[in-house]
């Protein structure tokens, strides 16, 4: 979601570098399912930024990911509709025990 906001300039200034970085971090966290959601954006932003700048941002994303490897459980607002972005996420411990708090998600 942060990548989309930075890409579109919604509630934050439009920033192609920030958008690319957030999309790349999403891929590192979400694997192939995340890649399928942001593939077009990554391709378009790579063309816009150039391969050298995209490579530097890939390195930044990898460094960030090495320090933030806590897996996330995504909670979907309207049930298990995986084609949509999640409404929120809870941290999950590495031994499979769920930790977090109850979240209020207002009806839209």
Description of the structure:
By secondary structure, this protein is mainly alpha-helical. It has helices at residues 2-8, 16-49, 51-67, and strands at residues 72-75, 88-91. Helix 2 (16-49) packs antiparallel against helix 3 (51-67). The longest helix is centred in the N-terminal third of the chain and has 34 residues, at 16-49. The protein is globular and about 30 Å long. The protein starts with a helix and ends in a 17-residue tail after the last strand.
Radius of gyration: 15 Å
Oligomeric status of the shown chains?
A: single chain
* End-to-end CA span: 17 Å
Number of strands: 2
Residue-averaged pLDDT:
78
Order of neighbouring strands in the sheet with most strands: 1-2
- Identify low-pLDDT runs: 86-94
User: What is the molecular shape?
Assistant: globular
Entry keywords:
2 strands; 3 helices; mainly alpha; 54% helix; 108 residues; single chain
Tell me the layout of helices and strands.
Layout lengths: L1 H7 L7 H34 L1 H17 L4 E4 L12 E4 L17
Antiparallel strand pairs: 1-2
Helix pairs in contact: 1-2, 2-3
Give a quick rundown of the structure.
The chain is mainly alpha-helical and 108 residues long. The chain is built from three helices and two strands.
């Amino acid at each position: 979601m942060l990548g989309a906001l930075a890409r579109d300039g919604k509630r934050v200034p439009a920033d192609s570098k920030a958008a690319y970085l957030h999309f790349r971090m999403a891929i590192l966290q979400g694997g192939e399912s995340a890649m399928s959601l942001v593939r077009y954006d990554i391709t378009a932003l790579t063309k816009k930024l150039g391969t050298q700048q995209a490579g530097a941002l890939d390195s930044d994303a990898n460094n960030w990911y090495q320090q933030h490897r806590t897996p996330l459980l995504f909670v979907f607002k309207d049930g298990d509709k995986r084609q949509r972005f999640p409404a929120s996420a809870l941290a999950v411990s590495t031994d499979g025990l769920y930790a977090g708090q109850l979240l209020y998600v207002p009806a839209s």
